[in-house]
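Hi Y.,

Following your request, here is the sequence exactly as I used it, all 236 residues.
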Amino acid sequence: MKKVAQVLLVLFAISACSSSSKHPTVVHHTEPNLMINTDWIEDAGCPLTEYIPGHYSGLCSSESPLLELGCERIGVNHLLGGLPYPVVTCENYGLEPIGTDFTVVGCYLSYRTEAFLTFRDGAYQFIGKEEIKAMSVPIESPDEALSYVLASTNYYAMYGIEIDFYYDRFYFVNEIEDTFVEETKNGYLIHLFSDLEPQCGCEDHYTDAVEVLVDRDGNIKLVKSRHFYKFYACAD
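Below is the corresponding structure, written out as C-alpha coordinates. Let me know if you'd prefer a different format.
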Protein backbone atom coordinates (compact mmCIF):
# COMPACT_ATOMS: atom_id res chain seq x y z
CA MET A 1 0.00 0.00 0.00
CA LYS A 2 2.88 2.31 0.87
CA LYS A 3 4.54 1.57 -2.50
CA VAL A 4 1.30 2.30 -4.33
CA ALA A 5 1.00 5.62 -2.51
CA GLN A 6 4.59 6.50 -3.40
CA VAL A 7 3.99 5.66 -7.08
CA LEU A 8 0.84 7.76 -7.11
CA LEU A 9 2.72 10.69 -5.57
CA VAL A 10 5.44 10.42 -8.23
CA LEU A 11 2.87 10.25 -11.02
CA PHE A 12 1.06 13.24 -9.56
CA ALA A 13 4.31 15.22 -9.39
CA ILE A 14 5.15 14.36 -13.00
CA SER A 15 1.66 15.34 -14.10
CA ALA A 16 1.84 18.62 -12.19
CA CYS A 17 5.21 19.50 -13.72
CA SER A 18 4.07 18.65 -17.24
CA SER A 19 0.88 20.68 -16.88
CA SER A 20 2.36 23.78 -15.25
CA SER A 21 2.85 26.96 -17.21
CA LYS A 22 6.36 27.92 -18.26
CA HIS A 23 7.93 31.28 -17.36
CA PRO A 24 9.50 32.39 -20.63
CA THR A 25 12.26 34.93 -21.00
CA VAL A 26 11.77 37.59 -23.67
CA VAL A 27 14.23 38.63 -26.38
CA HIS A 28 13.37 42.18 -27.38
CA HIS A 29 13.87 43.71 -30.82
CA THR A 30 13.63 47.31 -31.95
CA GLU A 31 10.36 48.28 -33.60
CA PRO A 32 10.90 49.84 -37.05
CA ASN A 33 10.16 53.54 -37.33
CA LEU A 34 7.38 53.35 -39.93
CA MET A 35 4.82 56.07 -40.56
CA ILE A 36 1.73 56.52 -42.74
CA ASN A 37 0.76 59.94 -44.06
CA THR A 38 -2.69 60.53 -42.55
CA ASP A 39 -3.29 64.12 -43.70
CA TRP A 40 -5.83 62.91 -46.25
CA ILE A 41 -7.80 61.16 -43.51
CA GLU A 42 -7.90 64.23 -41.27
CA ASP A 43 -8.81 66.41 -44.28
CA ALA A 44 -11.70 64.03 -45.01
CA GLY A 45 -13.26 64.69 -41.60
CA CYS A 46 -11.98 61.67 -39.68
CA PRO A 47 -9.82 63.01 -36.79
CA LEU A 48 -7.51 60.33 -35.41
CA THR A 49 -6.53 59.49 -31.84
CA GLU A 50 -3.67 57.19 -30.83
CA TYR A 51 -5.03 54.44 -28.56
CA ILE A 52 -1.88 52.31 -28.38
CA PRO A 53 1.56 53.27 -29.72
CA GLY A 54 1.53 53.29 -33.51
CA HIS A 55 -2.20 52.56 -33.78
CA TYR A 56 -4.76 55.29 -34.45
CA SER A 57 -8.53 55.32 -34.80
CA GLY A 58 -11.14 57.96 -35.56
CA LEU A 59 -14.83 58.36 -36.31
CA CYS A 60 -15.75 60.02 -39.59
CA SER A 61 -18.06 63.04 -39.45
CA SER A 62 -21.49 63.06 -41.07
CA GLU A 63 -20.13 65.19 -43.92
CA SER A 64 -17.06 63.07 -44.56
CA PRO A 65 -16.60 61.69 -48.09
CA LEU A 66 -15.22 58.56 -46.45
CA LEU A 67 -18.51 58.04 -44.62
CA GLU A 68 -20.22 58.09 -48.01
CA LEU A 69 -18.00 55.14 -48.95
CA GLY A 70 -19.20 53.26 -45.85
CA CYS A 71 -16.31 54.14 -43.55
CA GLU A 72 -17.80 54.96 -40.16
CA ARG A 73 -14.39 54.66 -38.53
CA ILE A 74 -10.83 54.66 -39.86
CA GLY A 75 -8.08 52.55 -38.29
CA VAL A 76 -4.39 53.20 -38.90
CA ASN A 77 -1.53 50.81 -38.16
CA HIS A 78 1.77 52.58 -38.81
CA LEU A 79 3.51 49.23 -39.28
CA LEU A 80 1.93 49.27 -42.75
CA GLY A 81 4.05 52.32 -43.52
CA GLY A 82 6.51 50.26 -45.57
CA LEU A 83 3.99 49.97 -48.42
CA PRO A 84 4.38 52.36 -51.38
CA TYR A 85 0.95 53.93 -50.73
CA PRO A 86 -0.94 54.55 -47.47
CA VAL A 87 -3.20 51.62 -46.57
CA VAL A 88 -5.69 51.98 -43.70
CA THR A 89 -8.74 50.11 -42.42
CA CYS A 90 -12.27 51.30 -43.23
CA GLU A 91 -14.73 50.03 -40.61
CA ASN A 92 -18.51 49.80 -40.85
CA TYR A 93 -20.75 48.77 -37.96
CA GLY A 94 -23.99 48.18 -39.83
CA LEU A 95 -25.61 44.75 -39.80
CA GLU A 96 -26.10 44.59 -43.56
CA PRO A 97 -23.27 43.89 -46.03
CA ILE A 98 -22.29 47.06 -47.89
CA GLY A 99 -20.08 45.68 -50.65
CA THR A 100 -17.77 42.91 -51.80
CA ASP A 101 -14.71 44.85 -50.63
CA PHE A 102 -15.74 44.35 -46.99
CA THR A 103 -15.20 41.26 -44.83
CA VAL A 104 -16.89 40.37 -41.53
CA VAL A 105 -14.76 40.47 -38.36
CA GLY A 106 -15.44 40.42 -34.63
CA CYS A 107 -17.93 38.54 -32.47
CA TYR A 108 -21.55 39.26 -31.57
CA LEU A 109 -20.95 42.47 -29.62
CA SER A 110 -17.92 43.56 -31.68
CA TYR A 111 -19.40 42.70 -35.09
CA ARG A 112 -18.28 44.91 -37.96
CA THR A 113 -17.14 44.76 -41.55
CA GLU A 114 -13.76 46.01 -42.70
CA ALA A 115 -12.00 46.87 -45.94
CA PHE A 116 -8.59 48.24 -46.81
CA LEU A 117 -8.62 51.78 -48.16
CA THR A 118 -5.84 53.70 -49.87
CA PHE A 119 -5.37 57.23 -51.20
CA ARG A 120 -3.70 57.14 -54.58
CA ASP A 121 -3.44 59.71 -57.37
CA GLY A 122 -5.78 62.01 -55.45
CA ALA A 123 -8.57 59.43 -55.13
CA TYR A 124 -9.87 57.09 -52.43
CA GLN A 125 -9.75 53.43 -53.47
CA PHE A 126 -10.70 50.18 -51.81
CA ILE A 127 -7.86 47.73 -52.22
CA GLY A 128 -7.68 43.95 -51.93
CA LYS A 129 -4.81 41.55 -51.38
CA GLU A 130 -4.06 41.12 -55.08
CA GLU A 131 -3.84 44.89 -55.55
CA ILE A 132 -1.59 45.16 -52.49
CA LYS A 133 0.66 42.51 -54.00
CA ALA A 134 0.73 44.21 -57.40
CA MET A 135 1.74 47.57 -55.95
CA SER A 136 4.30 46.10 -53.52
CA VAL A 137 6.47 43.75 -55.58
CA PRO A 138 9.34 43.42 -55.83
CA ILE A 139 9.88 43.22 -52.05
CA GLU A 140 13.30 44.79 -51.52
CA SER A 141 13.66 45.72 -47.84
CA PRO A 142 12.83 44.36 -44.37
CA ASP A 143 10.31 47.18 -43.80
CA GLU A 144 8.53 46.45 -47.08
CA ALA A 145 8.44 42.75 -46.23
CA LEU A 146 6.94 43.36 -42.78
CA SER A 147 4.26 45.78 -44.00
CA TYR A 148 3.35 43.56 -46.95
CA VAL A 149 2.87 40.41 -44.86
CA LEU A 150 0.85 42.28 -42.21
CA ALA A 151 -1.45 43.68 -44.92
CA SER A 152 -1.79 40.34 -46.70
CA THR A 153 -2.45 38.00 -43.75
CA ASN A 154 -4.04 37.85 -40.32
CA TYR A 155 -0.64 37.66 -38.63
CA TYR A 156 0.36 40.56 -36.41
CA ALA A 157 3.50 42.03 -34.85
CA MET A 158 4.32 42.35 -31.15
CA TYR A 159 7.04 44.50 -29.60
CA GLY A 160 7.92 45.06 -25.95
CA ILE A 161 6.38 41.75 -24.92
CA GLU A 162 5.80 41.43 -21.19
CA ILE A 163 5.16 38.11 -19.50
CA ASP A 164 2.28 38.09 -17.06
CA PHE A 165 -0.47 35.77 -16.00
CA TYR A 166 -3.35 38.13 -16.61
CA TYR A 167 -6.42 36.10 -17.60
CA ASP A 168 -4.52 33.07 -16.22
CA ARG A 169 -2.30 32.84 -19.27
CA PHE A 170 -0.65 29.46 -19.73
CA TYR A 171 2.71 29.71 -21.50
CA PHE A 172 4.08 26.87 -23.64
CA VAL A 173 7.60 28.17 -24.35
CA ASN A 174 10.75 28.90 -22.39
CA GLU A 175 11.73 31.83 -24.60
CA ILE A 176 9.88 34.21 -26.89
CA GLU A 177 11.05 36.99 -29.17
CA ASP A 178 9.49 40.25 -30.28
CA THR A 179 8.77 40.59 -33.97
CA PHE A 180 11.86 40.77 -36.16
CA VAL A 181 12.76 40.45 -39.84
CA GLU A 182 15.75 38.45 -41.06
CA GLU A 183 16.98 38.69 -44.64
CA THR A 184 17.75 35.30 -46.23
CA LYS A 185 18.83 34.13 -49.67
CA ASN A 186 15.18 33.25 -50.39
CA GLY A 187 13.64 36.52 -49.19
CA TYR A 188 12.70 37.70 -45.71
CA LEU A 189 11.93 35.55 -42.68
CA ILE A 190 9.52 37.35 -40.33
CA HIS A 191 8.66 36.42 -36.74
CA LEU A 192 4.99 37.24 -36.07
CA PHE A 193 1.99 36.09 -34.06
CA SER A 194 -1.38 34.53 -34.82
CA ASP A 195 -4.61 34.10 -32.87
CA LEU A 196 -6.18 30.71 -33.51
CA GLU A 197 -9.86 29.94 -33.85
CA PRO A 198 -12.19 29.97 -32.05
CA GLN A 199 -11.83 33.66 -31.24
CA CYS A 200 -15.44 34.00 -30.08
CA GLY A 201 -17.35 32.31 -27.28
CA CYS A 202 -16.16 30.77 -24.02
CA GLU A 203 -13.12 28.73 -24.98
CA ASP A 204 -9.39 28.38 -24.57
CA HIS A 205 -7.94 31.11 -26.80
CA TYR A 206 -4.53 30.28 -28.27
CA THR A 207 -1.85 32.64 -29.56
CA ASP A 208 0.89 31.13 -31.72
CA ALA A 209 4.35 32.42 -32.59
CA VAL A 210 4.91 31.97 -36.33
CA GLU A 211 7.76 32.35 -38.79
CA VAL A 212 6.77 33.44 -42.27
CA LEU A 213 8.92 33.61 -45.40
CA VAL A 214 8.11 36.15 -48.11
CA ASP A 215 10.08 36.24 -51.35
CA ARG A 216 10.76 39.15 -53.70
CA ASP A 217 7.69 38.24 -55.77
CA GLY A 218 5.37 38.54 -52.78
CA ASN A 219 4.78 34.82 -52.23
CA ILE A 220 4.15 34.10 -48.54
CA LYS A 221 4.87 30.76 -46.87
CA LEU A 222 4.32 29.68 -43.28
CA VAL A 223 7.60 28.07 -42.19
CA LYS A 224 7.00 27.36 -38.51
CA SER A 225 4.25 27.70 -35.93
CA ARG A 226 4.13 26.89 -32.22
CA HIS A 227 1.86 27.72 -29.31
CA PHE A 228 3.00 30.78 -27.34
CA TYR A 229 0.25 30.92 -24.72
CA LYS A 230 -3.43 30.24 -24.09
CA PHE A 231 -6.04 31.63 -21.76
CA TYR A 232 -9.67 30.87 -21.08
CA ALA A 233 -12.10 33.71 -21.73
CA CYS A 234 -15.56 34.51 -23.00
CA ALA A 235 -15.31 36.77 -26.06
CA ASP A 236 -18.51 38.28 -27.43
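The helical segments are 2-19, 39-43, 65-68, 129-136, 142-152.

Thanks again,
Q.
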